[in-house]
Amino acid sequence: MRNSFQIGKISGISIRIDYTWFVIFALVAWSLGDQYFPHVYGNRWNHITYWLIGVITAVIFFGSVLAHELAHSLVSKSRGVPVRSITLFIFGGVAQISDEPKKPGSEFWMALAGPLTSFGIGIVFGAVYLMARRSGTLLEALALCLAVINLSVAVFNLIPGYPLDGGRILRSIIWKISGDLSGATRTASIVGRMVAYLLILYGVWKVFSGDWIFGIWSAFIGWFLENAASSSYRQVAIREMLQGVKVSKIMITDCPKLPKGLTIRELVDEYILHTTHRCFPVIENDNVLGVVTLQNIKEVPRDQWETTKVEEAMTLLDKTKAVRPDDGLYAVLRQMAEEGATQLPVIDNGQLVGMIARDNLASFISARSELGV
Length: 373
Known about the structure:
The protein is of the alpha+beta class. It has helices at 21-41, 47-78, 104-132, 138-157, 165-178, 181-208, 212-241, 264-272, 294-298, 310-313, 329-339, 358-371, and strands at residues 4-10, 13-18, 83-89, 92-97, 258-259, 280-284, 287-292, 315-316, 343-348, 351-357.
C-alpha cells in the first residue's frame, strides 16, 4: 500500500496503482506496438500508428484487469466479506479482501466471478472482431488482440493452482467436501506450488531455446506464484492458530509510566537501554496523555534528545489507533500489517490497560507452532 496511490473509488472500493504497474504497462505497450502488431499486419500502417494502437490496447487491457478484480470484489462484498482496495501492479491486479470467506460456496463464486468476467469481455471483443473482420481498420486489429488476451487471462486464471482463481475454486470444492479450510488450503497450495515449478521449468527451457524474454517472464511468474502459494497457506495456518485468542492473553500490562518533563535522552538511558520495555505511556495526574514508541523516538534528531520532552514526541492518546482487550489476535495482526505498526495501545473504557507489540505476536505464534497447539 505504501508504494501505491489512489486514483478513485468504485462502490466504496479504493482503486490504486502500484508504481511497479508502470513497468508492466510500458512493457505491454512496447510488445504490442513494436512487436505484435507490426509482425501480424506488416506494412498496413506506419510505426506511429502501431505504437498508438499498442498504447490504446494496453489501456483497455488493464481496464479489463480492473473489471476482473472488481467482479471478485463486488461478489465478495455481496457475501459479507469486506474489500479494502484493488491495486494494479506488475503482475496485473489484486483485490485486498479483508478476511477469508466464511463458507466454501462464497469462496467458489468469489473466485469464479473474475474468470467469468474476463470470458465475457473476451467474447464481446470477439464479436466486435467478427463484425469488423476484413474491414482493414484499426478496430479489427484491436478487437482481435483484446479478445485473445482476455480469453487467455480467463483460461490462465482457471489453472487449479492456489492462489490463482482456479486454485481458489479447487480449495472451495475440497473445503466443501472435507469441511476443513486449513486442509483444503494446504492441498490447493501444494497444487499451486507444483504449477509454479512447472512454469519456472518451462521458462528455463524457453530461455535455452532462444526465447529468453518469454522464458524469463514465465519463470518470474512461476516464482511469484510459488511465493504467493506458500504465504497464502501460512496466512491461513496463522489465522487458525490465533482463532479465538484475545488481545488480553498476550498484551503487555507492566508499561512504565513516564512523567511529563522527562527528556528523550533520559527515557533512552533509564528505560529503554536497561529494560525490555517498549511501551511508554506519558501521564499527568494519573491521566494518560499519550504514548511514546520507538518510532516516535527515531523521528527526533539525535542532537535534540537532551532538550526534547517526551510529551513533545508522544502520540496523543485520542490520536492513537488502538485495540481492545477482547479483540481477536488475528484481526490485530492484520491491522498492524496494513498500517505498518509495530505496536498498538490497548484501551478499555477509555483507559490504557496495556500494549500489544508485533514481537509479542511473533513469539506467541512461534511457541504455538513449535508445540503444535
